[in-house]
Predict the 3D structure of the following.
Amino acid sequence: MFSDRVKSIELSGIRKIFDLAQGEVINLGLGEPDFQPPEVVKKALAEGVMRGYNKYGPSKGFPELRELLAEKYSKYTELAADNVLVTVGATEGFMATMQSIVNPGDEVLYPDPGFVIYNPHIRIPGGRPVSYPLLQENEFVPTQEDLEKRITKKTKAIIVNSPNNPTGGVLTDAAIKMIIDLAEDNDLLIISDEVYFNLVYEGEPKTFLGKYDKLIFVNSFSKEFAMTGWRLGYLIAPKEYIEQIGKIHYYTVACPMSPIEYAAIVALKEAPNYVFEMRKEFRKRRDLMYSLLRDIDGVEPNLPKGAFYMFPRVNVDDVVETVKDVVKEGVLCTPGNAFGTNAIDHIRFSYAASEEDIKKGMEIFAEVVKKHRKN
């Protein structure tokens, strides 16, 4: 009854762990800011509904919204509304991109550990996912050698994600140049997932925008404006890419949600610095979680340079069983194997939570690790 395509994919391992949670829990598995959207933006959503923004809109998004997004990133490269496609979250943008560029048999490189959608999104249109490692000893930045040896004549594109989910790693200028040089030498597309764009703790955001022509830049309003449940994202790419990806986008969702687009326009105009307010809090929480994890025997934490995740290596007999016990004790977190084969000895924690929850969660985690730690 069902296609081989759908039978070949499974639901995210994150969901399997979350299903173990019972009653009240401390959520350190959260992949979203624990803030609410700016007040002016919440009011704008209601205003949009009352003003009649309840009908179908343009397939590629409201022209004003596309123009504002082009203007937002014009400091990096010359852009116009024709370079922007508004999507139903970054996830739909990613799916439309993969459906538009991948032919059966094409190979696409993606980071491991990496966000859970990459592998399935490559496989659904018949592509072959080829993972490249991100290792803690390299600050979760890929090496040139690891990328080069995975590129073949069938390689079509490379997916990059910085700041990275789940590691919090951020690509250096040298790494960005190295990836671009490899892409140029091998005529590859670069799909750059930058949904945590402004959530960096050292210097200005580092981006692929303006540095390479065959680039599809993926972003969303979810992290920057705490609008995760509103499902609004966008792609920035050459006009011809937007035209072709826009076909799949149209036949998938028809158009983005009109009242949410109206609110997004207000967000860009009236709350452009909201992410920096969240970032101040995330930095304090990052430093707190790092200090607490560093004091636990058998745990080797990383100090993330971006996003709001910590991805420590843990010296336990079985990471998944450890996580299950942590969840049973009322603290949500995620085993590294949910993000790839190179992360089986890691656990992802989100510090998009209150300082009180972080302290209590790390206290519970420390007790569970004692029981599972390797001798």
